Amino acid sequence: MTFTHPTYLWGLFSLLLPIIIHLLNQGDVITLKVGSIKYLSEHDTKQSRKIKINEILLLILRLLLLVLVVLVMAGPKWKTPSNNTSITYLIEPSLLQNAQIKSLLDSLPSSDLKLLADGFPDIEDYGGGNEETNYWKLAQEMPVLGSDSIVVFSKGLVRGVKGKRPTISEHINWMVLDDGEAQSKYVGAWVVNDSVELLQVNSDNRLTDIAKRNISKADEEIKRLDNDSLFFSSEKGHFNIPVWKKDTIGAGIFFDTDFEKEKFFMEAALKAVEAYGGHAVNIVSYRKGESVRAFDSVMDLSVWLGVDPHLETPVTIIFNPDSLAGKLLVPTERKNLYSLTQRLNIESAIDMGLTKDLAHILLKNDSIQNLVDSYDLRVLAEEEIVPVFEDINRSSVRMGTMDVSPWLWSFIALLLLFERMLSKMKKQ
What we know:
Elements: E1 2-3, H1 16-25, H2 45-73, E2 76-83, E3 85-91, H3 99-107, E4 113-115, H4 135-141, E5 147-154, E6 167-168, E7 172-176, E8 183-192, E9 195-203, E10 208-216, E11 222-225, E12 229-234, E13 237-244, E14 249-255, H5 260-277, E15 281-287, E16 299-305, E17 315-319, E18 329-331, E19 337-340, H6 346-351, H7 354-362, H8 367-374, H9 382-385, E20 388-389, E21 397-403, H10 405-426
Parallel strand pairs: 3-4, 3-5, 5-7, 6-20, 8-13, 14-15, 14-16, 16-17, 17-19
Antiparallel strand pairs: 1-2, 2-21, 8-9, 9-10, 11-12, 12-13, 18-19
Helix pairs in contact: 2-10, 5-7
């Protein structure tokens, strides 16, 4: 037997309480003073023995009730043997309207078809929704299917691959169905003086990028402009998009003389984040030994290059070389603290994506970054998605689990009824 929540088994220590109460009550003796015992009959020892047996029986029943309640809270599962299925087909929910998938659904038995989603539900149980599919997370959960072979049909989106490539012992044939989907959509706008800057996301199976278009406030395309929304018409149609406010990001770079080159690269990367994110970045640099001037705005980021940090900021980057790190900016155990793992030059700043990493750190709650991620339609090749296969000798019989909680609840109800009846009869 296994338990879903084994920590609840600590509740079995509660069995000590009724036992202690029972033992303490054994010492309760009432002494009555009488003038004469001439007319008192001898105490019936059989009656006394019967009362003690009833007390012990009630104690056992109550202890058993406590044990069963604790077991139900722990979520008991009974292991049962179950044979592996020969093959299982997993289909990403967003592909259910695909013509190829529809023909597949008609040609295969429904018992072999499941959705590539949490819990791998049957297709008949699909209730819709646009939940994000994490391919590698689901691949790690596929052993619960108990299938000798698994065929996965997915779109193979880049945003569906997160974390480290898993190692599993399941035979998976990953099929990527690229339907050539592409989209171009206005997602937001900024108001800058007398003009409006429109942001457009363009994405297909190869590339996702952001285009910006400036139009005048007085342009005839603009039909209505409020503080939080913009409605305009063009030859491509009618659009109602949100208007964003450009908040200023305060950044301070504290550097030693030997890190002046790194300071220039960091400033350039922050300016690129400013152009990408549409937020003004107020950059102030301090050489080691200079007094720190008061900021006119809140400092959102501090970068420490060869200098020990001495200011608390929402995001902090320190120079901490690590030759084994595969990225320039690596998160540490402390929240919002990042390590710059190597000295900066043209190659490292460009090839290792310094600007991209800074954008993800500073704009992680920003509407633009979230929109780019949600509209990303880039597709990976099949060999880039498939987890690492590790050949492990497995038995053709796997162990399944059966929830025994309903049976325990029934037994608890019967015991409780019996205990109440016995307690009422003996007035205990």
